[in-house]
Design goal:
The complex is a heterodimer of chains A (557) and B (160). Chain A has 557 residues and is of the alpha+beta class. Chain A has helices at 2-19, 22-27, 56-67, 81-84, 86-94, 105-113, 166-175, 187-197, 211-227, 239-250, 266-275, 288-294, 298-311, 318-330, and strands spanning 30-32, 37-39, 73-74, 79-80, 116-124, 137-144, 153-160, 178-186, 202-207, 230-232, 283-285, 355-360, 364-374, 388-399, 402-415, 427-435, 447-459, 463-474, 484-497, 500-511, 516-529, 532-541, 548-556. Chain A has 14 helices and 23 strands. The radius of gyration of chain A is 28 Å and the shape is globular. Chain A starts with a helix and ends with a strand. With 160 residues, chain B is mainly alpha-helical. Chain B has a domain at 75-153. Helix content of chain B is 55%, strand content 0%. Classes of the chains: A alpha+beta (557), B mainly alpha (160). At the A-B interface, α6, β7, α7, β8 and α8 of A face α1, α2, α4, α6 and α7 of B.
């Protein structure tokens, strides 16, 4: 009697122990909260216990009970629990539990079709001129033991949105109005989409994850899609977050999600996995557009341009394209593709997304922080060249005896395009938030505002020259009782050499109330290390206003 | 924080062009053309799951009708999904897509090497019309392939 009690007690302790092990917590997608745990899975079918969403121990108890029941049918496919909760079963079996054998034909066929030898993390760079993609995108690739990776499968986490699009899509995406699901697609579908159609480069990083982890990952994918979904949030529970959580579920030794306390930017996924040392040297797949740009032969360029148009469904002269291809086929010498050096834009190198800086300007000093990601003067290695995508930038200024907020920028975007003959894409910029407009000449005039413009220009790796028609709108106007609106030309010129970047930014603004005289800013950025830079900034205005000069030290992390 | 981001997105509809690989991702690329082939695929649909994970597995979702397990339909599926790439690489006589196509057709490694060179040589027969649909292409491919010496070592060409 005493012995039985003791055994029961030991079992209970053991179950308690397992239920709070990283392996179990990760499989159930629990996150620590102030009072305990809460799972991120949102589909009801995921939980076997009434309190499962917040109670790991109770969920474990009910899972063991369900796995012993071969009769009750559950999940989207109406199958015994052993064929639905496949990763929990695998986890518990590895812990020494034994369950009655059940034939899981669907699952086993699916697994047989996926003879996976290894995993890769794939990073898709930003899509030119599309700010939503500027952070990039990440997904996994399941590598079979074949020579042709195009036939491997991509595991993508995305919102299932149905047919609607536009603003509603964006809105619901942010507030979690869509179900996020994992999906499998042949890798060629992804390469066609990103590389060939959208002009995005792909980086394939092989992961050093073993067979046990791969088995668990596949079992877990099956379980998730058989039972649940995740509310999709663009900015926190996004693709990159879910990929990290999936890898943690596959291998509980990995500590990934805790490395990123706020949310995960896709390029950060790459950095986090690199820090965890499970990333190998990447294979680079330049986009078709990049190949087009680097190709020297004019005949070949013409063909590539039409190939891109065909992939986009925008090819007009099909007959000409056909004739050129027949001519190419009749030419016994194939064209040799250009050599494209991958080192400059690798997402695992370069500066981190967050930045703090201190500026000394003689009669003022500033402290500034940025949440993400890159600005036009930051060292371009690992980032989109000559671009700005700053989200949340806050600057305080100390001047004479007062401390004030200089700016609170929600978004600051600069997207420069080169005139490259692939169809006209405009360059543009947009900045909004609380701004202290130069034209007000008043240090305390902080106003909600929007600065935006359209233009065009030349962009190479080392040089930019762009002209814009710029507008500036502010909610308040110290010169009249209404809002402020101004419009005028803006010219940007930049030059990059080694660790130095030079930028001249000059503009003139006309307005009903008060013009911004011809003004400009000359800046030099010197990148000392990946995580540190020195910046000199010289602002001038043709009116009788003193020049402003500042020297800044910037830290990235 | 989230409110600000919502505001930002509403102000800026271009943001909504986030990753579009959602829903019937393949469907939107492949099945847009209302070809006989796609109709053939759709005809086999009897019920559908919401999930693309199973759709691909069991070939019943109506979106992604190829099967991980059954490879016999794969050449058709592959050619339809990758026609622009095949068109170009076959004229070039080399490339990843055309090499992979030979694998999909079940060609032995030696025949795979021959396939791309052969495709370049037979280009104007394989693509004899500027407006050739995937179906036309596959028909021509089946016809031309039969006359080659290496076709016998490509064992997945029954359907084309």
């Amino acid at each position: 009697m005493f012995f039985l009690l003791l055994l029961g007690w030991i079992n209970a302790v053991r179950a308690q122990d397992i239920s709070h092990s990283p392996g179990w917590l990760n499989l159930l997608h629990y996150q620590k909260t102030l009072t305990g745990f809460k799972s991120e899975a949102d589909g009801k079918g995921f939980y076997l216990s009434e309190t499962g969403k917040t109670n790991p121990a109770s969920e474990l108890k009910e899972t063991i009970k369900a796995l012993n029941d071969t009769q009750t049918l559950v999940g989207k496919l109406k199958q015994p629990a052993a064929c639905v909760y496949t990763s929990r079963r695998l986890f518990l079996e590895r812990q020494g539990h034994q369950f009655p054998k059940v034939q899981c034909t669907d699952y086993e066929n699916w697994r047989k079709g996926l003879q996976i030898e290894s995993l890769s993390l794939v990073f898709a760079s930003s899509y030119p001129n599309n700010p939503a993609s500027m952070f990039g995108h990440t997904f996994l690739r399941l590598n079979a033991n074949g020579n042709n990776p195009l036939l491997d499968y991509a595991v993508n986490f995305a919102a299932t949105t149905g047919a609607d699009g536009g603003v509603e899509f964006a809105f619901l995406g942010v507030v979690g109005g869509y179900e996020g699901h994992y999906s499998l697609a042949p890798y060629f579908i992804k390469v066609n989409e990103y590389n060939n159609s959208e002009a995005r480069d792909l980086w394939e990083y092989p992961l050093t994850m073993g067979k046990d982890a791969i088995d668990m990952l596949l079992a877990h994918l099956w379980e998730l899609e058989s039972t649940t979904y995740f509310d999709y949030f663009f900015f926190d529970e996004n693709c990159s977050w879910q990929i990290l959580r999936l890898l943690e579920a596959a291998d509980p030794e990995l500590k990934l999600s805790e490395r990123s306390p706020f949310y995960v930017i896709p390029s950060e996924t790459v950095r986090i996995l690199k820090e965890e040392k499970i990333l190998q040297e990447p294979i680079y797949r330049p986009s078709l557009q990049k190949i087009y740009l680097e190709t020297k032969s004019q005949d070949e360029k013409k063909l590539l341009k039409m190939r891109i148009q065909e992939r986009k469904g925008k090819l007009e002269d099909k007959k000409l394209y056909h004739e050129l291809l027949v001519k190419k086929a009749n030419n016994p010498v194939p064209s040799s593709p250009p050599n494209i050096s991958p080192t400059q834009s690798r997402p695992d190198v370069g500066h981190g997304p967050r930045r703090v800086s201190y500026t000394e300007g003689g009669n003022f000093r500033r402290l500034s922080g940025r949440f993400a990601l890159h600005d036009v003067l930051d060292q371009d290695v690992g980032h989109d060249k000559w671009s700005t995508l700053d989200v949340l930038r806050l600057t305080f200024e100390h001047r004479e005896t007062s401390l004030l907020t200089r700016e609170l920028i929600l978004a600051d975007v600069l997207s420069l395009q080169n005139i490259d003959g692939l169809g006209f894409e405009p360059s543009w910029f947009l900045k909004f938030g609380a701004i202290n407009p130069r034209e007000f000449r008043c240090v305390k005039c902080l106003s909600g505002g929007l600065e935006a413009g359209l233009g065009t220009g030349i962009k190479t790796d080392t040089f930019i020259l762009s002209a814009f028609l710029a507008t500036r709108s502010y909610g308040m106007n110290p010169y009249s009782k209404s809002y402020y609106f101004g419009i005028g030309p803006r010219i940007l010129a930049g030059y990059a050499i080694g660790d130095f970047k030079f930028l001249l930014d000059t503009q003139k603004i006309f307005s009903e109330t008060r013009d911004l005289n011809l003004s400009g800013e000359i800046s030099i950025n010197y990148s000392l290390r990946d995580d540190m830079a020195l910046r000199l900034n010289h602002f001038y205005q043709s009116a009788n206003k003193p020049l402003e000069f500042g020297a800044s030290l910037l830290f990235y992390f | 924080m989230r409110f600000l981001l919502v505001a930002m997105i509403i102000l800026f509809p271009a943001l909504s062009m986030a990753d579009s690989s959602t829903g019937c991702g393949l469907g939107s690329i492949i099945w847009k053309e209302n070809s006989i082939l796609s109709a053939l695929f759709r005809a086999t649909t009897n019920h559908s799951f919401s999930s693309q994970l199973f759709g691909i597995t069991t070939g019943t979702s109506g979106c992604s009708q190829h099967s991980i397990v059954k490879r016999d339909m794969y050449p058709v599926y592959y050619a339809e999904a990758n026609l622009p790439e095949l068109r170009y690489e076959m004229a070039q006589g080399q490339g990843e897509y055309v090499a992979t196509f030979a694998e999909v057709l079940g060609c032995s490694p030696s025949a795979q090497a021959e396939f791309a060179t052969w495709a370049k040589g037979s280009y104007s027969k394989l693509f004899n019309d500027a407006n050739a649909t995937p179906k036309d292409f596959l028909k021509g491919l089946g016809r031309e392939l039969k006359q080659t010496s290496f076709a016998s070592s490509c064992d997945n060409t029954a359907l084309i």
